[in-house]
User: What shape does this take?
Amino acid sequence: MKNPGFARVSALTLTCMAVFYATPAWAERLELAADASWWAHAFAALLLILHIAGGAVGLAAGTAASLTTKGGRWHRCAGRWFAVGMFISYLIGAGVAPFLQTGQRPNFIGGVLALYLLLTGVAAARRREICAGPQVVAGLAAALFITAMGLWFAYQGAHHPSGTVDGSPPQAFVIFVLAGSAAAAGELNVLLRGKLEPAARVSRHLWRMCVSFFIASGSLFLGQPQVFPGWFNNSPLPLLLAFAPLLVMVVWMIKVRRGRRSSGAESGSKSGSESGSGSGRSRRTADSAAPKLSAGHH
Assistant: This one.
């Protein structure tokens, strides 16, 4: 069955990428050559403003979503703002990176990874069922591409005289390999099983959104030290704030797994005394044990 929302997002992404590639934004920080047209300068300035504003909104909304009750009204509202803000920021970052004078290949793949995790994480919240289909196949291809690029960049960096790829050491590409491999395994699991159980769908949403959030927080607090005062950079705060999304992910993944185990034990104890009703009740308790995610509102 066709998904109009997915089609609209895909069309918007391709259109924006086409506009980026038709614009001579080939200088650092989206600054154009002096002889570029006025509209090119205006468009580059707009892209920079949208990139920063989208990231700021996304970081604030992501923090709010992390601190509010999962599945609640405020969580859904913050989640929507996080998705919109980060979509704009990631799309611009990935679209403009190939045009910068200094090499930005890692940033391009990082933007693709962040976008992929964001879109599939949002889809896991909006859709009541994650079933095998063309979208999952496309997701598997994207995850394998990201993993392959991470391995290739790590190899290039290890064998390059500078020990880096466009200024990034091989260790920087670990997240590409780990996140890409985990995402590929998740897509393959959907294809083999045909459908995800409710708790697995929640886990898919949690880890993908949190890792996408981590890419943004790490890029700001660890990748942009020049925007913070010296006392801040010399304190543990940058590391703490950068890795906070991963800590939130660990806490909630543990809660989801505990809920899954408790619901399984409860359904197993009931199946001995109520023959034939255990299967239906197990499914209901598994659904209720996981944090609720309202379809169409995240």
In short: The first helix runs from residue 4 to 21. Residues 8-101 form one domain. Confidence is low (pLDDT under 50) at residues 9-28, 281-290, 294-298.
